[in-house]
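ugh ok fine here u go
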Amino acid sequence: MILRVSVILFEFNFFYSKLLSIFVRTKEQYKYMANNNSVRENEQDFKDKIQYGDFITLAKLIGCSSSDSARMRFNRGDSEANEAMKKIIENRENLIEKFTKDKSN
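structure:
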């Protein structure tokens, strides 16, 4: 009987400590979660700006044989592919902005 009670108490304590570890967060964890969410939002905004033909340009920049392999490297999170894609998007936006300014003058 005592053994059974001690096993039940041990299981309860183990479960309770796991439950607390899920809900109790430190300030550092909240800061990390906030930063991580903002990074995800920035990545999603970045991915929303990808247009037709960007992966063809990406393949030429990073030396891939096809746009499909460039897309795979980008989707896997390859740092070279991500940096190149950011430059493609930034340069396209700057070119459009500059061209529309020159056109309006």
